[in-house]
Amino acid sequence: MYNLFMTLLIIVSILIVIATMMQPQKQQDALNALSGGAVFSGQTKKRGFEAFMEKVTAVLLVLFFAFAIILAYLSSK
């Protein structure tokens, strides 16, 4: 059981890296963060591929933390 969750955790962590790298880059957002740009510039609604990748990343992160907690529980027994 421990090996199954460890394998799933490794797979999910690799998928998180891939999903993070596939997200579209915004040069202007990084510039605004460093120079104190407009506060409301990040308030626009994301659409299409960007919204999909954000949801995929969020689901993968929830799975990652769930598997990590399960592994911590299994290793304590």
TrEMBL record:
<comment type="similarity">
    <text>Belongs to the SecG family.</text>
</comment>
<dbReference type="InterPro" id="IPR004692">
    <property type="entry name" value="SecG"/>
</dbReference>
<keyword id="KW-0813">Transport</keyword>
<dbReference type="GO" id="GO:0043952">
    <property type="term" value="P:protein transport by the Sec complex"/>
</dbReference>
<keyword id="KW-0653">Protein transport</keyword>
<keyword id="KW-0811">Translocation</keyword>
<keyword id="KW-0812">Transmembrane</keyword>
<feature type="transmembrane region" description="Helical">
    <location>
        <begin position="56"/>
        <end position="74"/>
    </location>
</feature>
<protein>
    <recommendedName>
        <fullName>Protein-export membrane protein SecG</fullName>
    </recommendedName>
</protein>
<dbReference type="Pfam" id="PF03840">
    <property type="entry name" value="SecG"/>
</dbReference>
<keyword id="KW-1003">Cell membrane</keyword>
<feature type="transmembrane region" description="Helical">
    <location>
        <begin position="6"/>
        <end position="22"/>
    </location>
</feature>
<dbReference type="GO" id="GO:0009306">
    <property type="term" value="P:protein secretion"/>
</dbReference>
<dbReference type="GO" id="GO:0015450">
    <property type="term" value="F:protein-transporting ATPase activity"/>
</dbReference>
<dbReference type="GO" id="GO:0005886">
    <property type="term" value="C:plasma membrane"/>
</dbReference>
<keyword id="KW-0472">Membrane</keyword>
<keyword id="KW-1133">Transmembrane helix</keyword>
<comment type="function">
    <text>Involved in protein export. Participates in an early event of protein translocation.</text>
</comment>
<dbReference type="GO" id="GO:0065002">
    <property type="term" value="P:intracellular protein transmembrane transport"/>
</dbReference>
